Amino acid sequence: MKLMLIQGPNLNFLGIREKAIYGSVGFEDVCDEMTKYAKSINIDLSCFQSNCEGEIIDCIQKCYYDKYDGIIINPGAYTHYSYAISDAIKSVSIPTVEVHLSNIHTREEFRHKSVTAPSCVGQICGFGAYGYKMAIDYLANDKID
Ligand code: DQA
User: Fold this and answer.
1) Ligand 1 centroid – CA 145 distance (Å)
2) Three-state SS at 118
3) Phi and psi for 4 in degrees, rounded to 5?
4) Which residue out of 13, 82, 104, 120 has the highest number of ligand 1 atoms within 8 Å of its CB and is therefore the one to mutate?
5) How far is 51 from 11, CA to CA, in rounded Å?
6) Ligand 1 atom showing the smallest separation from residue 125 Cα
7) Of 68, 78, 100, 132, which is the active-site residue?
8) Is residue 116 a part of any domain in this protein?
9) Considering only CA atoms, which residue is closest to atom 9 of ligand 1?
10) What would the mean pLDDT of 77-94 be, rounded to a whole number?
11) 81 labelled catalytic
12) 122 CA to centre of ligand 1 in angstroms
């Protein structure tokens, strides 16, 4: 099984940005840990990060052409206003799980709304990077009733 983990703007600054909210583990460490975890359960996980909306859309479309089985996406601030990313997720018909490190519902009002979540199977938020593992587990097991 092939999964893609897409992380949006400023997530490459994990371990540097607002540590009280996002934690002190660095971006590369999070990617490495997720890749290793996926491998341990026989999943081939690719990681992609971009600060640009169009590149995120290109990556989602690449998942279609390259026949990925699932997408895990943390669209960062694009979550709250990118109809283009929302459309891209819908377009590819690949099961997609939205993940946020922080609990967006307990933060500023503008973060409470996700325009991308309605295109996803579901949303996980507030569990830090562990949320990415939860999403991997779900996608790995989504054939189980
Ligand atoms: C975030 C939440 C967003 O509101 C914010 O803009 C981010 C990170 C999270 O993972 O908690 O960049 O997606």
Assistant:
1) 31
2) helix
3) -115, 130
4) 104
5) 8
6) 11
7) 100
8) yes
9) 100
10) 98
11) no
12) 16
Q: Is residue 132 part of a domain?
A: yes
Tokens of 40: 């341990």
Active site residue 22: yes
Report the CATH number at residue 88: 3.40.50.9100
For range 34-51, the mean pLDDT = 98
Give the pLDDT band (50/70/90) at residue 4. Answer: very high
Q: Where are the alpha helices (DSSP H) in the chain?
A: 19-22, 27-40, 53-65, 83-92, 130-141
Q: What is this structure's pTM?
A: 0.96
What tens digit of pLDDT does each residue of 12-26 get? 999 999 999 999 999
Q: What domain count does the chain have?
A: 1
pLDDT of residue 143: 59
